[in-house]
Structures are given as C-alpha cells and as structure tokens.
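Ligand: NAP. Inputs:
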Amino acid sequence: MVKRGLFVGRFQPPHLGHIEVIKWCFRHVDELVIVIGSAQESHTLKNPFTAGERIEMLRLALRDAGIRADKVYLIPVPDIAMNFVWPRYVELFAPRFQIVFTRNPLVARLFSEYGYKIVEPPSFSREEYSATHVRELMLAGNDRWRQLVPRSVEKYIDNIKGVERLQQIAMKD
Ligand code: NAP
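Predicted complex:
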C-alpha cells in the first residue's frame, strides 16, 4: 500500500521553510497530500493570494525543488466554522492518508482525535522562513523577502504584482 501523508498550510506565500518541511515529509512517506487551507481567503493582509495562485506557486516551487508532481496532490480546502468536524471535511476533499505532518497544535489536536498518527517536522530557520515575515518585508518595501522564497515564486509574485496588491490592501485597511 502507498504510504501517504497530509501537510496543511495557508502558503501565503509558499516559502523555503515550507519546501524544507515537504522534503522532510518525503523521508517518511511515498506520496504527500498538501492541503491549501483557508482556500476561500484572498486579498487580505493575512491572506493576500487566492487558492489558485497558491496552487500555481506551490507547483512551481515543488518543480524547483525537484519533487515529482505525480507524488503530490494539491487540494484547496475552505475553512469551516466547526473545528471538530474539520478533519472529516478535509477527508472529503483529499485522497486517503495515514499520517498528518504538522507543527500547528490545533491541526494536530483535531486529527489526533480521529486517530491519525501525528508527526511534527523540525523547524527550519523559523524566524526567517515564515510567511508572516515575508509579508511584513513586502509591506515595508524590503526586497529581502526575495531570498526567503523559491526563485520561481519570486518571479510569479512579480508577474501578478503581488507586492503592490499587499501594499494597496494595507492602505485600505
Ligand atoms: P502556514 O503558516 O502556511 O504553515 C503551515 C505549516 O508549515 C505549519 O505547520 C508551520 O509550522 C509549518 N512551517 C512554516 N514554516 C516553517 C519552517 N520554517 N520550519 C518548519 N515548519 C514550518 O499555515 P497554517 O496557518 O498552520 O495552516 C493551517 C490551516 O488549517 C489554515 O488554513 C487554517 O485555517 C486551517 N484550519 C482550519 C480549521 C477549520 O476550518 N475549522 C481548523 C484548523 C485549521 P509553525 O507552527 O512553525 O508555523
């Protein structure tokens, strides 16, 4: 049987820390389901990118990292108001999986209550590789964010004028 894991994130945007975690997960499983959480969100300070944009960025980033596309499922899942049933909701959208990789305590708690094995990946330079930090740098007009994301993600964000979008949202807020 194929050993399949689940990794949930918002990927706002995908950064090099996410890619390190994904590579690390592949040491433990044959295939990985990557859930793009809060799929309904976009054009806010915390969630500037659409689910579709996040799918495109992740595909580019995975290709850059040499991760085979046929080993990964990218599944967007909107949030729901009921935490307890959320793992069941994820199961509705995702192919079957046996292990949940997460550092998020709520995600770990909810999936463990349904009997899933939870594995916590290590932290990869979390102070630097954090989507919050990337967005803060973008907002401040500091180009250092470019070093924290894969090259293809940097180009993608430039193409869609992602930094401009975030700065404009901040002005409105
Ligand atoms: P995220 O910020 O994109 O992070 C995804 C995962 O990557 C986290 O476990 C995070 O660990 C890890 N990570 C990021 N950078 C890392 C690094 N440098 N080294 C190691 N690990 C790193 O996404 P998230 O907010 O955790 O995503 C959870 C999603 O689940 C959200 O969309 C949330 O809305 C959804 N959710 C929904 C419900 C519901 O609908 N009721 C309930 C629960 C969760 P850290 O902990 O270190 O950041």
